[in-house]
Amino acid sequence: MNAVTGKPVPAHDPTFETAEQRQARVDLAAAQRLAVIQEMSEGIYNHFTLTVPGHDDRFYVSPLGLHWSEIKAGDLLTVDYDGRLLDGKGPLQRSAFCIHAPIHRRKPQHAALFHTHMPYTSALTRLQDQRLLPIGHTEAQLIAEIAYDDDYTGLARDPAEGERLADILGDKTILIMAHHGVLVAGRTISEAYDRLYTLERAARVQLFAQWTGKPLRELPGEMVAHVHATITGGPLAPGVASGHELHFGALKRLLDRQNPGYRE
C-alpha cells in the first residue's frame, strides 16, 4: 500500500523495464549476495541503493526482511525520494529512506550508495581516532576520497539525518561514520562495490598492523597524493576501461558458481 496515496502498489513487472533497468536490478542483487560471501553484510539489515536508470527521482532498494543471500533482481523495491513505494512488495526500511533519499537527491552523480556495518571498517569507527592511516599502497588510493562523520546521532529515523550526512560527504565518495559504519558512493554499482571491498581490506590491514603494537610506517603526504593521482589518472592496462568493471564481472562469475539465482 502506498503510504501517501493509500492505493495498492503494483508488484514488480519486468515487462515495463528497459534493458538498462533490468541489468541494474541484476547487478544490485548480485552486489548484496556478494557482500554476504565477502562478510560485508549484516543479515537483513544495512542497505544498498541505486538510482533507477532513466530517472532522477527514484531508487531501487531491497525490502526489509530478506536475507541478503536470497535477494533476487525481481525483489527490489522502487521508491521515490519522498518515500513513496512505486513498485514491489515488502516493507521499506525507514533508515534506508532517511539516509539514502536525501543523498541521492543532492548528489545525483552518485547513482550507487552502499551503507554497511562491515566489521573491519566498523571497528575503526569505534576508535578514538577513526581515520584510515596512510600506511600503505591500498590506503593511499582511498584517503583523498574519505570524509568523516564524528558526531553519532543515533538511529536514522528522519530525512534530516540524510541531509546532514550529505553535507559531510561533500565531494568525497566514502563517509566513515563514528560509532556506526560506512557509506560508500559510486557512479555505478561496480565502482561502489570495488570501493567498498577495497576499503574493508585496507581497514583490516590497518587493524592487523595496529594489533602488533609496533610503530607504524606512514607514507609522506606527497606520496599519498601521487598514488591517488596515478590510480585515478588512467587505465590499469591498455584497452581496459576500468578495473572496477573487471573486478565486479569476475565476482559475478564467482557468484554464479556459489549462489546463482540473483538474476530472477
TrEMBL record:
<dbReference type="InterPro" id="IPR051017">
    <property type="entry name" value="Aldolase-II_Adducin_sf"/>
</dbReference>
<protein>
    <submittedName>
        <fullName>rRNA adenine methyltransferase</fullName>
    </submittedName>
</protein>
<dbReference type="GO" id="GO:0032259">
    <property type="term" value="P:methylation"/>
</dbReference>
<dbReference type="Pfam" id="PF00596">
    <property type="entry name" value="Aldolase_II"/>
</dbReference>
<dbReference type="InterPro" id="IPR001303">
    <property type="entry name" value="Aldolase_II/adducin_N"/>
</dbReference>
<dbReference type="GO" id="GO:0008168">
    <property type="term" value="F:methyltransferase activity"/>
</dbReference>
<dbReference type="InterPro" id="IPR036409">
    <property type="entry name" value="Aldolase_II/adducin_N_sf"/>
</dbReference>
<feature type="domain" description="Class II aldolase/adducin N-terminal">
    <location>
        <begin position="26"/>
        <end position="207"/>
    </location>
</feature>
<comment type="similarity">
    <text>Belongs to the aldolase class II family.</text>
</comment>
<keyword id="KW-0808">Transferase</keyword>
<keyword id="KW-0489">Methyltransferase</keyword>
